[in-house]
Amino acid sequence: MIKASDSLEAISKSLHGQPNFQDQAMNESAFVKVAVFGLGEAGSLIATDLALSHQQAANNAPAALELPPLTVTGFDPADVPTPAGVERFSDPQKAVEGADFILALTAAADATTALEQALEAIPPKSVYVDFASAAASLKRQLAETAASRQIAFCDVALMAIMPGNGIRAPALFSGDGAKVFASLMEPRGMPVTLVSDQPGDAAQHKLLRSVAMKGLAAVLIEALEGAQAAGCAPWLWQNLCDEITAADATVLERLVKGTDTHARRRLHEMQASLEQLHDLDIAPTMTPATVANLEKVLQMGIPEIPE
Fold this sequence. Notes:
The protein is of the alpha/beta class. The chain has helices at residues 8-16, 22-25, 41-60, 92-95, 111-116, 136-147, 178-185, 201-230, 233-246, 249-261, 263-279, 286-300, and strands at residues 32-37, 70-75, 86-88, 101-104, 127-130, 152-158, 171-174, 192-196. Helix 8 runs antiparallel to helix 9 (233-246) and helix 11 (263-279) runs antiparallel to helix 12 (286-300).
């Protein structure tokens, strides 16, 4: 991990020599311009919080008045409301004119289009910021496209839901534009962890975590389907709540290491669980995967648990 302790001006010099927004950061009367692609739930919350951040920060800490104020523009082809404080354009190229930061809050399937739709109009030495939950390989492709126009790139992985958090949602940043973007966002309330200067590293961290977190939700759903069919859903839900809320690092380590030690017994238990779901007319997807995983552990063991 690296620290975002340098000033916006100092970091931007190290990245680009003379960035688009350097003179603005040194001039209190000037504005830093942020363009936002995607004004759905996440994009609208980020855009509004940025637009209002200067005054809110000043109310909480008078020293925040030293931060350059922001203007926020936006583009979204969908029929969605325009966020408060955002100047909306019908043309993405108009939205990015003179922008210092371009924030793309789109689905992964739209990430490439979001960048390419205005690539020729994005100012060189600006920072393009992609928030999509996309594979690291796609993030690296986006960074290469941005670099072809002398545009820095920041890969952002949001680590909490946006409703109720907005700009205060914790996030992982990576890429050659990560430090500059962190220096814009941290003083305005976003908890940032700088992962590395490599695009895709932030996404990779989040998506590997998602294997566990989203996988856990899928397993819970399948267990509840069976419990509802068996008429014991209240008992199962309470039991799972008690077990999961009481868990700590020791419990997690025991779950993983115990699987290695007791893989054959657990395999037989999960084969019985699979049969039980079939008896209840449940078509399982996660339980067969658990059976396959236990068979794999018997052959290959488990990965090393970090100290």
